[in-house]
Design goal:
With about 260 residues, the protein is α/β, with parallel strands linked by helices. The protein is built from 9 helices and 10 strands. The longest helix is centred in the C-terminal third of the chain and has 18 residues. The structure holds adenosine-5'-diphosphate and magnesium ion.
């Protein structure tokens, strides 16, 4: 079955009075297992805020988020204030989601336990480590014993432990070296292909989105200015802001086969 997470006319507001920030202003988006969605835009454009609203970590001021037609708020959670189990998120800094005093194996087993996943948790943790390209022996190590890229793999394994139907990656590879970044992007791509996971990728880097996503939504000041199939967006951007963003991509980062002038 194909999964679909839909945001409809979502508004998110932080703070009150003079500190009020209207961070997301009426955005609609669909994340489905059929088409991976990329969310682009400069820093401060509201990408992370939208992502948090989409996975149920933030409550929108207005608008709705539904999963396969049911309101997100009604889906089973693992605790008060926690996000629904069907959606998981991978963040830029994996250390923030990993307990430094817990071995990797324990961290994954904890996720399995808390979410009442049946079966042999030890075997399942080993399977998950295998999926993200780590060794069985890595289960008894601590987060600090890994590189940044490996830690991101662990965070992905932990997110997958919950058997989500939707995975949102927010700048998940932005802090990694280019070669490590490529490996993690390949991993996300493979996981999506093999598991049918609905994927949304938030990145200020358009090349990351181009690699992983079927559609790209461009955000500016809390508004989605353009949402189009990736290829069309690169070849014929409609919005001036999208053109500006594409123009800001360093020349060397544009894969061969694309005529830059047509993108400008
Ligand atoms: N917790 C918060 N409290 C108040 N304002 C916030 C908070 N998080 C983000 N903002 C503001 O909301 C806007 C959008 O931020 P964010 O969603 O983080 O953008 P992006 O991920 O595109 O960089 C910015 O103006 C930012 O300063
Ligand atoms: Mg962000």
């Amino acid at each position: 079955m194909s999964s679909e997470l839909r945001a409809d006319d979502v508004h998110v507001v932080y703070g009150h009075g003079a500190n009020r920030v209207h961070a997301v202003r009426g955005v609609s988006a669909t994340i489905s297992s059929d088409r991976a969605l990329g969310i682009a835009g400069e820093s401060g454009s509201g990408k992370s805020t939208l992502a948090r609203a989409i996975i149920g970590l933030l409550e929108p001021a207005s608008g709705s988020v539904t999963f396969n037609g049911a309101p997100l708020a009604e889906l089973p959670k693992r605790g008060e204030g926690s996000r629904p189990r069907v959606v998981q998120m991978v963040f830029q800094d994996p250390m923030s989601s990993l307990n430094p005093r817990m071995t990797v194996g324990d961290a994954i087993r904890e996720a399995l336990q808390v979410n009442d996943i049946p079966g042999d948790h030890r075997a399942e943790a080993r399977r998950l480590l295998g999926i993200v390209g780590l060794e069985v022996a890595d289960a008894s190590k601590y987060p600090f014993q890994f590189s940044g890229g490996q830690r991101q793999r662990i965070a992905i394994a932990r997110a997958l432990a919950v058997r989500p139907e939707v995975l949102v990656a927010d700048e998940a590879t932005s802090a990694l070296d280019v070669s490590v970044q490529a490996a993690v992007l390949n991993l996300l791509r493979d996981i999506r292909k093999e598991s049918g996971l609905a994927l949304a990728v938030v990145s200020h880097n358009l090349d990351v989105l181009r690699y992983l996503c079927d559609d790209i939504m461009v955000m500016r000041r809390g508004v989605a200015v353009e949402t189009r199939p990736t290829k069309a967006l690169f070849e014929d951007p409609h919005d001036p802001y999208t053109k500006m963003l594409l123009g800001a991509v360093p020349r060397f980062a544009v894969p061969p086969g694309i005529d830059r002038r047509s993108a400008l």
